[in-house]
TrEMBL record:
Lineage: Bacteria, Pseudomonadati, Pseudomonadota, Betaproteobacteria, Burkholderiales
Highest taxon above the source species: Bacteria
Domain CheW-like: 35-187
Protein name in the entry: Type IV pili signal transduction protein PilI
One GO term of the biological process aspect: signal transduction
InterPro entries, per the entry: CheW-like_dom_sf, CheW-lke_dom
Species assigned in the record: Cupriavidus basilensis
Length: 195
C-alpha cells in the first residue's frame, strides 16, 4: 500500500471512531435525567425555573384570540403547529398584575403532553439554569424552617410553588411545579360566570 492510501484509511478510521463516539454521547445524554436542569424565565418582575422534563417548547410571541366568558388571566388561544393552545397571563394568575411584554417576549409551553399543554406569557426567556449553579437565598437559608416553610399568617404558598434559589448575581428564582399547577383547581377554572 502506498503512503497516501494509508493516510486516507487512517483518516477514515479516525472519522468513523469520532462518529461512533459522538453517537454514543448523544444516546447517553438523552438517557440522563434532566431533573437538575431548568428553563429560566422572567414573568413580570419574578424569575421562574421550569423543570426541563415538564417544559414544552418556546414559541414566538403572537396575539392570542380572545375567548368570551373566561378569567381575566386567560388571554386566549393561539395556533401552535396545528393545535389550539390556551395562553395564560401568569402574572395576572399569580395576582401580581399583567405580565409586561417587550420585544423578544415569548409564549412558553407547559407540559410536553399535548392534551395537558398550555402556554404562559414570558416577559423574557433567560435560558438554561442548573441546580449546581444555584443556592438557597440568604434570607431563606437563615429562616428557622428553611427552605420552603409556608409564611405565617392567612396567606399560604400555593403547592405549585417549589423551592426558592438565588443565582450568583443575587437574583431570586422560584421553581414552578408544572404538574401541580396543571392539576390546580384554580388554574383549571378558566371559565367565569356571565354577569
Amino acid at each position: 500500500m502506498t503512503a497516501p492510501r494509508q493516510d486516507l484509511r487512517a483518516r477514515q478510521t479516525r472519522l468513523q471512531d469520532y462518529q461512533a463516539m459522538l453517537a454514543r454521547r448523544l444516546r447517553e445524554a438523552r438517557s440522563l435525567p434532566a431533573v437538575d436542569s431548568f428553563l429560566g424565565l422572567q414573568v413580570g418582575q419574578r424569575h421562574w425555573l421550569l423543570p426541563l422534563p415538564e417544559t414544552g417548547e418556546v414559541l414566538e410571541m403572537r396575539q392570542p384570540s380572545r375567548v368570551p366568558l373566561t378569567q381575566s388571566w386567560y388571554t386566549g388561544l393561539v395556533n401552535a403547529r396545528g393545535s389550539l393552545l390556551g395562553v395564560i397571563d401568569f402574572g395576572l394568575f399569580c395576582g401580581e398584575g399583567a405580565t409586561a411584554l417587550q420585544p423578544g417576549s415569548k409564549i412558553v409551553v407547559l407540559s410536553r403532553q399535548v392534551e395537558r399543554a398550555c402556554g404562559i406569557l414570558a416577559t423574557r426567556v433567560i435560558g438554561l439554569r442548573h441546580a449546581g449553579d444555584l443556592s438557597l437565598p440568604v434570607e431563606a437559608a437563615n429562616a428557622p424552617n428553611a427552605p420552603n416553610a409556608p409564611p405565617a399568617g392567612p396567606e399560604a404558598v400555593p403547592d405549585w410553588e417549589g423551592a426558592r434559589f438565588a443565582d450568583r448575581d443575587g437574583r431570586d428564582w422560584q421553581v414552578l411545579d408544572v404538574r401541580r399547577l396543571l392539576a390546580s383547581p384554580a388554574f383549571l377554572q378558566v371559565g367565569r360566570q356571565a354577569a
